[in-house]
Amino acid sequence: MNNSTAYQDLDSSQASGTIQIALYYLVIVLKVAINPTCALIALFAAFVNIMTFLKMDLTQGVNLSLFILSASYLFLAILLALGNVLKATLWLGLKNLAIVRLLLMGNRFGNFLNITAYVVTTTIAIFRCLSVAMPFKFSNLVTTRRQLVAIVMGCCVGFSVPIRTQILYYTAGTFSPVSTVNLYIMDTFRKVFFFSCLAIIIVSTLYLTVALRRSSRFQVTANTTTDSQSRTCKKKEVKVIKTVILVLTIFAACNVPLMLLSALRLASIDFTNSEQYQNANLLVKMIIELGASLNITLNTFVYLRYNTSFRAVVKKSLPCFFSSCSFT
């Protein structure tokens, strides 16, 4: 019995060692090749988005909210690209205190950009649900100014705790009990805030999907009973809803790894400081960064497919791209 138990322990340790080696090399591939490449592609996509929206009428539909979202994604893409380059530099052995400080500063600034992205995406979800639920009152109820006010107020709420915590952190001292408690409060607030926004986004996505399916059932009847102008408006509204649904779905899907990690921490299952799960923790962080890059990049293709104005502006700017690809 002792020998069999010893062999079982040996087999389990060998299997665990093999898994750790596989995770280690997977982290290297993500850190050195995949994540930096995707971050650079996301940076290009974010730049295309922001330059395209600047040439469009931001008072139409959700263009203003998508422009603000693209602006936050542009800065986030810059941080992702810069962070991946700095991490690759550290991995290659070129360690420098200035690089570490830049990474820490980027993480703090990236937190505010994440909050902005969550607030804007949640605002888009809520307002588009209102447009479906109250189609006749929406234009008078939700104006461009009110959308901006809602986004600014949401950002103020999201920024309040991190800003206060950072001030106390540097005022009281890095290792003081006050700063530690406030950092815990900030971490808890961030998780609750992100979970609340994500819940609203998921519920809104489901609601819009059901509403879109219901409207499609009556599309044939509507085409025979309404005039051409009404049909054109209906098609534009359907494209806007499809755009919002895809943007919300991609956002939620790309943030699943971050939400799972936050859920484990809320459940007091924290493996970030355990040496046993060091490679797994690094892999999760790499996947979170990869999800952020994919979120930014995939939005561009959604806009090209369903936003006619966006596609027309890009077609003028990048005719070579449209000569080989078709989004019509």
Automatic annotation (TrEMBL):
Residues 44-303 form the G-protein coupled receptors family 1 profile domain. It is a multi-pass membrane protein. InterPro entries: GPCR_opsins, GPCR_Rhodpsn_7TM. One of its GO terms (molecular function) is G protein-coupled receptor activity. Its main location: membrane. One of its GO terms (cellular component) is membrane. The chain crosses the membrane at residues 22-54, 66-92, 112-136, 148-172, 192-212, 244-266, 286-306. It is found in: Membrane. Keywords: G-protein coupled receptor, Membrane, Receptor, Transducer, Transmembrane, Transmembrane helix. The keyword Transferase does not apply. PROSITE patterns: G_PROTEIN_RECEP_F1_2. It comes from the Eukaryota. This is Chemosensory receptor A. It comes from Elysia marginata.
